[in-house]
Amino acid sequence: MTQRPYTVVLIVPTGVGAAMGGYAGDALPVARAIAQVADRLITHPNVLNGAQLYWPIANAWYVEGYALDKFAASCWGLRSVWQNRIGLIFDRGIEPELRVRHLQAADATRATLGLNLTDYAITDAPLNVELRLSEAGASWGSIGNPDSLLRAAEKLIEQAKAEAIAVVARFPDDEGSEALQNYRHGSGVDPLAGAEAVISHLVVRQFQVPCAHAPALLPLPLEPEISPRAAAEEIGYTFLPCVLAGLSRAPQFITPKNSNSRASDLWAEDIDAAVIPGNAAGGSAVLSLSQTRTQIIAVRDNHTQMRVPPKKLGIAAVEVNSYLEALGVLVAHRGGISSAALCPQLDPLQCLN
Prior knowledge:
Strand 8 and strand 9 form a beta hairpin. Strands 3-2-1-13-14-15 form a six-stranded parallel beta sheet. Strands 5, 6, 7, 10 and 11 form a five-stranded parallel beta sheet that branches. The protein has a two-stranded antiparallel sheet with strand order 4-12. About 30% of the residues lie in helices and about 20% in strands. Helix 1 packs parallel to helix 10 and helix 4 (about 95-115) packs across helix 8 (about 240-250). The protein has helices at about 30-35, 45-50, 65-70, 95-115, 145-160, 180-185, 195-205, 240-250, 285-290, 325-335; strands spanning about 5-10, 40-45, 60, 75-80, 85-90, 115, 120, 130-135, 140-145, 165-170, 210-215, 250-255, 275, 295-300, 315-320.
């Protein structure tokens, strides 16, 4: 008998100081490992983006965070593609030389990777991104001119027939900040991540197309003592290559507007397991999946600023110490083997009252 594909969701929330996945693509090894166990891995840009570094994972589905929430809530489905036509938006606030650096990176992905990009658009006003840090320690941000971003996206979708949108916004240079120094040295929270999520959420919510963001920043001074987890962001002028590579094969979203379903479309009911940080169970996607048959696996080693373990919310989860242990749980789960049977002590069955 042919079994349906085993499907795993890997979630590491953005901007919450995750010990793994809170830096420059440092959850990519986790994604690569889980992809060896799963037939299909669904994850989001925060996991797969590593600035100029990325890894082609054939069975990974690159799904923006807002879309992942809608998918987990059974509002949207996912449809695989062979290639997306990517539209590129530049913030008018980007300096001409810095824009050229990003255009050269985009052209390099066309020539070297064979990606399909449309002509680009520039917002009709600077986006004026501002960065914030919440009292709980998570990063977030705001956009001064969101309508300008949406007008540029609409132009690319309607006139250039873009099927996915990459955004490059000018972010504030904050070279001397304590938050940035902590991040570069492997502690604290990514100060950019929360604002990046706001940008992509706006586009995905309005147009229901894949979207991801790359910040435009001036190069930082050389720092010999950079943490390996943050080092991917130190090796070039742009973070754009990983975004374009991810969007090139990102699944399209199936919504009530385009609900002609296909047998190959993926829905929340198809998810077998979800792997999350040990104390980050409060996100929308996790809450939705906890109401389904999905096996939630919480990894204690990957602690965050959220401090919301599954037990606090009454979520039934298998709690493990590491991603290595989580891989073992996935192997057993895929094989239809109870994890309890792999422990030396097995409690006897009890009669129900």
